[in-house]
Amino acid sequence: MPNIIESLNASMLRDPRWTPHQDRRAGGTKYISTFVNGRGDVIALDLGSGGKSAIWALARLSPGTLAPAVDRELYPSERPRNHHLNVPELKGKPLMRFYPRNRSEAQQLVDYFAGA
Asked: What is the pTM of this model?
């Protein structure tokens, strides 16, 4: 049975609001799947985070009021990160890593970022 992020990845591949990032393989690698919305904003699904589901986004796009209970962690621009996140839109920028507890929270975040 797919975990939250694997399920989200499969649905985003069919979602017309998102396209796979042109510098990455559609569907992702075993570690990261990267998508671009219609405005060019990028989010990444952490497929390799094991039991803890994670979604990466630019910190400036991160919702302050949406899903305030979703656990999150700020990654300042100088903090080291997985090289799979090194797409031009994310490289060297402050990121936020979200840890949704269930598929509903994860979908809420994706819906927000699709229209952010």
From this structure: 0.87
User: Are residues 74 and 96 in contact, defined by beta-carbon separation less than 8 angstroms?
Assistant: yes
Residue 79 pLDDT exceeds 80: yes
Q: Which amino acid is at 99?
A: Y
Question: 96 pairs with which residues across the strands?
Answer: 57, 74
Give the Cα separation of 37 and 73 in Å (integer). Answer: 22
Residue 74 gets the label, from left (phi > 0), alpha (psi -120 to 50) or beta, of beta
